[in-house]
Amino acid sequence: MPEGKIVKALSGFYYVLSEGSVTQCRGRGNFRKNKITPLVGDYVEFQAENKTDGYILKVLDRKNELVRPPIANVDQAILVFSASEPDFSPALLDRFLVLVESKEIEPLICVTKMDLVTSEEAEKIEQYVSEYRSFGYEVLMTSSKTEHGLEELTPYLKDKISVFAGQSGVGKSSLLNALNPDLELKTAMISSHLGRGKHTTRHVELIDIKDGLVADTPGFSSLEFSELEIEELPKCFPEMVEVAEECKFRGCLHINEPKCAVKSAVEAGRIPDYRYDHYLTFHKEIKERKPRY
């Protein structure tokens, strides 16, 4: 039985890439009954008489899936944040990082527009960058000249399924367009009074870019922790995971527990205050979340 990867889903058809060519398939009749929805990024078994008339017989196990955009088996999320216009936001970056970590997706932080900030602002951002690197994150710093960012980014795309995400209005679509000019994504001007970019796409597709596959739509349009349990949150902060073994209690949530190594590390300046503050904010948000039935 041939296996392949769904690279596009549109109007009930799934386009399966296998051995260098794409076959148009439908899902099996019993998929709907069994509540199976194939997603872009899924590895599948399929059969086909020809290139336009195939059937997906089985969806293989996923390592992860996103709801928006609906996509599976993502290897990395390229989190694009700007140094300026809009200003760099560690709070928003940490929110993205937690969402990405909770899905076991490798994050790559990309700070753009470094040439548009004053030396004082640059110093502040470089301080953040060195801290994020010390937590174990990969961070690229690029200028507003897109081609500079592309050279840095290209090696990271090879052999991976990547999604772009990050602050609104930082030029994610422009970056994707520069990586593959055929895309011509609808890049909307930042609506200045909102400080937000608008993006319009009706289907998800994986596009072959620099020997990897990239989703043609920015990811994570929902930034709520709707699927994250409170016990999982500490595992989404690598620098906490590192010291948590020294906590007195197993399963310590680093809030009110005595002899908490994480709180000691914050007090000693080994974990920055802002990271711990964001952790507390997210913890409260998950705790106060309305139950789903």
In words, what does this structure look like?
By secondary structure, this protein is α/β, with parallel strands linked by helices. Helix content is 28%, strand content 24%. The two termini are 39 Å apart. The protein has 3 domains: 59 residues, OB fold (Dihydrolipoamide Acetyltransferase, E2P), CATH 2.40.50.140; 145 residues, Rossmann fold (3-Layer(aba) Sandwich); 58 residues, Ribonucleotide Reductase Protein R1, domain 1 (Orthogonal Bundle), CATH 1.10.40.50. It contains 8 helices and 13 strands. Helix 2 packs across helix 8. About 5% of the residues have low confidence.
Question: What characteristics describe this protein?
Answer:
six-stranded mixed β-sheet, OB fold (Dihydrolipoamide Acetyltransferase, E2P), Ribonucleotide Reductase Protein R1, domain 1, 28% helix, 13 strands, single chain, alpha/beta, 293 residues, five-stranded mixed barrel, Rossmann fold, Ribosome small subunit-dependent GTPase A
